[in-house]
């Protein structure tokens, strides 16, 4: 659990923004940049909220509105002419929003518990839901927010999950959405799952990428002695690039890398998706994480 950061109660924050296409970047050594909003959601087959599809919104021509009231946060996101998605993230009653994991462990939300609720169009979890959201970064003035979320509707065959970033400082380079991809926990030997990671060239010149690759990221712990070792071999075996459209990407255009996670090792595994820039030598990356248990 990360160190908790206090939130000033009663603060209301409203951001009316526009979002298009895709996400955030983490090149190895580059100057910092602030992107206002990036929201990503992915749905497993059988999830009734997303219908098993994925969506990404970021500052641009789409509408993203984040409203803070009391200790909770509501985010609405919509592409022009498309369905509106609503994200409600509420910590347990009497507690401020903090860095760390907030669980919604009951199938039916109960007063006093943390609540994660996402609706897409007219679709929601009609029979209740369970899930959690993990706050990775949060400023005391509520102007900066970074969280991962996962939820499953009661009786559904799959979960939906994703990332929310508001005013997050990120290194210069193409936007990669999400900047961190946390797959839902899966049973050992369960089927693989693939999701699209979107890369947007926000610069003024074309980008040229080499073949995207998976690099290990150690995640070994006392609770997972069979997980990643010190050089991340389990991560490189658990994740794979299924396909990619990222090669020459003109300014303002985007491409997609499909990443597959296979639950091959007990406990947590982590890795990086790395896109090498063949012209500058820069390496842009997104973090990947999975868990078997």
UniProtKB/TrEMBL annotation:
This is Choice-of-anchor D domain-containing protein. Gene3D superfamilies: Immunoglobulins (2.60.40.10). Residues 1-30 form the signal peptide. InterPro entries: Ig-like_fold. The keyword Signal applies. It comes from the Bacteria. Keywords: Signal.
